[in-house]
TrEMBL record, chain A:
Mode of membrane association: Multi-pass membrane protein
InterPro entries: AA_ABC_transptr_permease_3TM (IPR010065), ArtM/GltK/GlnP/TcyL/YhdX-like (IPR043429), MetI-like (IPR000515), MetI-like_sf (IPR035906)
Top-rank taxon, per record: Bacteria
Gene Ontology CC: one annotated term: ATP-binding cassette (ABC) transporter complex
GO BP field: amino acid transport
Protein name per its UniProtKB record: Amino acid ABC transporter membrane protein 1 (PAAT family)
Limits of the ABC transmembrane type-1 domain: 15-204
PROSITE patterns listed in its UniProt record: ABC_TM1 (PS50928)
PANTHER family in UniProt: L-CYSTINE TRANSPORT SYSTEM PERMEASE PROTEIN TCYL (PTHR30614:SF0), MEMBRANE COMPONENT OF AMINO ACID ABC TRANSPORTER (PTHR30614)
Claim: Cell membrane is one of the keywords in the record: yes
Family the entry assigns: Belongs to the binding-protein-dependent transport system permease family.
Keyword Thylakoid: no
From TrEMBL, chain B:
Entry GO MF terms: transmembrane transporter activity
One GO-annotated biological process of the protein: amino acid transport
A matching Pfam family: BPD_transp_1
Organism of provenance: Paraliobacillus ryukyuensis
Protein name in the entry: Amino acid ABC transporter membrane protein 2 (PAAT family)
SUPFAM superfamilies the record matches: MetI-like
PROSITE patterns given in the database record: ABC_TM1
Gene3D superfamilies noted in UniProt: MetI-like
UniProt keyword Transport present: yes
């Protein structure tokens, strides 16, 4: 028990990295999701194909490979420094889950009933108005549970940034393991519990999102 | 933009080296998948026990495993299991990866089984009872034959998802393609080419399988005219 009290503050030092990467990459993923989800519904073939290419590349390979690729390859290939490893992590996680979420955005918009499109057209709305006033608000409601689920996935994904030398909670856990071999179960137990505590509000929000998505829908 | 850092010589040198790990990556994917398929049954079975305390505990454990990172779970099994008192055992890294990833994904698979069973129409249960089927016959002849087929495409999707999570095992020194690429990188101080090869290999394998699953899904939906809705089963 003494060890638990001793370890918690040490591991919790990584919380600011874990939480900041979580928030930044989640926001980045949401932006990518709406942007590319809407691009894939564009009338322009080039825009559609290009975003389709992005989505398939990032859905087809794994996050850890993308993370290492961005970490090793981008500076060498293009001579760009992304600034810091924090940005590499945020970019990798954001681009990866942005690709998954863009499919959620796309399918939700497509699942809005055809009658809604026709009614909006009949009311003489422009294409943009139709999307903004009629289709989008209905589609967003359906997206909420999936966005909640994927945010939990993003939280799980943030643990990977410890592999590119970011000092998140897993990183501090690994360092402690070096000096307290015999207490390894306690150390990783604390790390797991901390991740679960971070996930709890997200789980709650997901449940809430499911309720909102179901409300007032006949089925 | 200049590509002077890209070297085709290194690429050709790295390619056979990285490919050595392909067998392990694919083998690990299949092992994890089979483990998760079997262990998923355990969760489904435990969830069906009609005792609210057991149910609450099982749901909590599943939620805990599902919402914590598989990477930490792998580390727990690899580093912490050997020093645990009484049950402490040192396992081969490959076995650690199978158990770690297998248990993680079995919670999702269990959820899929549950949704499949719940999608069977209530009338079928009642009819089976009315026809005086034994519990064994009810499950084997009425419920499972209807519950299983709609879950096949979802299980297939999870196969691909697991394939993409398997490189996590490189962190506990399982010699898959990512591990090979990083070994090559540290030996030759050239990471760009081997990591790119790994990315291409993943695309080459997962994209066609995803198309195949989509086709299968269409076929099964057409045949059974059902689609099972699941919540909380994304990874």
């Amino acid at each position: 028990m003494d060890y638990v009290i001793e370890f918690i503050p040490q591991i919790a030092r990584g919380l600011n990295i874990t939480i900041s990467v979580l928030i930044a990459s989640a926001l980045f993923a949401y932006i990518m999701a709406f942007f590319s989800g809407l691009c894939r519904l564009s009338n322009n073939v080039i825009v559609r194909k290009f975003t389709g290419f992005y989505v398939e590349i990032f859905r087809g390979t794994s996050l850890i490979v993308q993370l290492f690729w961005l970490y090793y390859a981008i500076p060498m290939l293009f001579g760009i420094q992304l600034g810091s490893n924090w940005w590499v992590g945020v970019f990798a996680i954001g681009l990866n889950y942005g690709a998954y979420l863009s499919e959620v955005v796309r399918t939700s918009i497509l699942s809005v009933a055809q009658g809604q499109y026709e009614a909006a057209t009949a009311l003489n709305m422009s294409r943009f108005q139709r999307m903004r006033i009629v289709i989008f608000p209905q589609a967003v409601r359906m997206m909420l549970p999936e966005f909640g689920n994927y945010t939990i996935q993003i939280l799980k994904g943030t643990s990977l940034v410890s592999l590119i030398a970011m000092s998140d909670i897993l990183y501090y856990g690994d360092i402690l393991r070096g000096s307290y071999q015999q207490q390894t179960p306690i150390i990783y137990g604390i790390v797991l519990v901390l991740y679960f505590i971070l996930a709890l509000p997200l789980i709650w929000l997901t449940k809430k999102g499911e309720k909102i998505a179901k409300k007032g829908v006949a089925s | 933009m200049d590509f002077t850092y890209w070297s085709w010589d290194t690429f050709l040198e790295a390619l056979p080296f990285v490919l050595q790990g392909l067998g392990i990556t694919i083998g690990l994917t299949f092992s994890c998948f089979v483990f998760a398929l079997v262990f998923g049954f355990v969760w489904t079975f435990l969830q069906r026990i009609q005792n609210k305390y057991i149910k609450a505990v099982v749901t909590f454990i599943m939620e805990f495993i599902r919402s914590t990172p598989p990477l930490v779970q792998l580390f727990f099994i690899y580093y912490a299991l050997p020093v645990l008192p009484v049950i402490g055992v040192t396992l081969h890294p490959f076995v650690c990866a199978v158990i770690g990833l297998g248990v993680h994904f079995s919670t999702y698979i269990g959820e899929i089984y549950r949704s499949g069973i719940e999608s069977v129409d209530k009338g079928q249960w009642e009819a089976a009872t009315a026809l005086n089927y034994s519990t064994k016959d009810k499950w084997l002849r009425i419920i499972l034959p209807q519950a299983f087929p709609p879950t096949i495409p979802m299980l297939g999707n999870y196969f691909i998802i697991m394939f993409k999570e398997v490189p996590l095992a490189s962190t506990i020194s399982v010699g898959g393609i990512l591990f090979m690429a990083r070994t090559f990188g540290s030996e030759h101080w050239a990471y760009l080419e081997p990591i790119t090869i790994v990315g291409i290999l993943f695309l080459l394998l997962s994209y066609p399988s995803a198309l195949l699953i989509k086709k299968l899904e269409k076929k099964i939906n057409h045949r059974f005219n059902t689609s099972v809705m699941t919540k909380n089963t994304n990874a």
